[in-house]
Amino acid sequence: IDERTLPGARFPLEMARDADVGRNSLLTYELTSNPSFSLALKDNPDRSQQPELVLERVLDREKQSSFELVLAALDGGDPAKSGTVNVRVNVTDANDNPPVFSKTLYESRVAESLPVGSLVLQVRATDADSGSNGRISYSFGNVPDDVSALFSVDSDSGEVRTAGPLDFEENSRYSFSLEATDGGGLTAHCQLQIDLTDENDNAPEITILSLSSPVPEDAPTGTVVALLKVRDRDSGENGEVSCELSGEAPLSITGPGGDQRPELVLVKALDREEAAFHDLVLRASDGGDPVRTGTARIRVRVRDANDNAPVFSQAEYMVRVPEDVPVGSVLVTVTATDPDEGLNGFVKYS
């Protein structure tokens, strides 16, 4: 009997036979008591009675898949004789149960460095139906393209694995739905939430936002020479950056922005005549393990200021000349030099 059969349906049972005649062969039937079934007798034209099994209430195969009944036939003799037959009622399955997930939300936390093909989590759904009606296949619901590119689900086992490289900096959490479908087309849905943990896989990046070069050599201390930006795409300690400046120079890293927005500031007076430029190396290190570093090379040129007077090669020149030296004769050649450059170092005599 199909479990969708409505109450009141009748199912003919085998009639009993009695070799006696007359009253001794008149048969009546009895059925073991069961709330789901009753017995009815249908009169046949030959005055015999056909026993029929009557369904009294809706069946549910998932609660009870079969019934064991006993049908007894009694004749009209004295004493009465009887015969019995076992009646087994098998309830056939209807696809009246959808799949049910063991959880409505499955959560997992994995490292962003998880290799492609690694197991992330496994979902599980059950179906109370039997046969193909209870056979479940798993698939993604309507998910974004980035989810289907990074994850796959095994239709039979419900295992969710990585299908592409994960990147915490691109997306630290993925939330999407997964569905289970039975052989009859009924579906159920659950939600998956996959959180990524950060790995120290990014080195700090240094960007020179502005650079004042050349710098006048008479610039006062405290002058900001360069504005910098230091960024590490990792999070937590992996993204905490400290900076240091290497190279002999009257410059230092400071500024109100801290290490993330450092400034290159003049801390000592410049002297172009000692150094026309300064080559610096800015190194940024994060707090990960192992530590990752980023570097930037900066050349600061010094622009000349007229801060040097000409200097004669001698402080005093002694010249002896005869009194009859002709007019226009060269008596002595004096030289003066100026360490400044350009016009600041061009010397004129008078």
UniProtKB/TrEMBL annotation:
It is a single-pass type I membrane protein. It comes from the Eukaryota. The keyword Lyase does not apply. SMART domains: CA. Residues 236-260 are annotated as: Disordered. It is found in: Cell membrane. InterPro entries: Cadherin-like_dom (IPR002126), Cadherin-like_sf (IPR015919), Cadherin_CS (IPR020894), Protocadherin/Cadherin-CA (IPR050174). Keywords: Calcium, Cell adhesion, Cell membrane, Glycoprotein, Membrane, Repeat, Signal, Transmembrane, Transmembrane helix. The keyword Translocase does not apply. Residues 1-101, 102-206, 207-312, 313-350 form the Cadherin domain. One of its GO terms (molecular function) is calcium ion binding. Pfam families: Cadherin (PF00028). GO terms for cellular component: plasma membrane. GO terms for biological process: homophilic cell adhesion via plasma membrane adhesion molecules. This is PCDGD protein. The gene is Pcdhgb1.
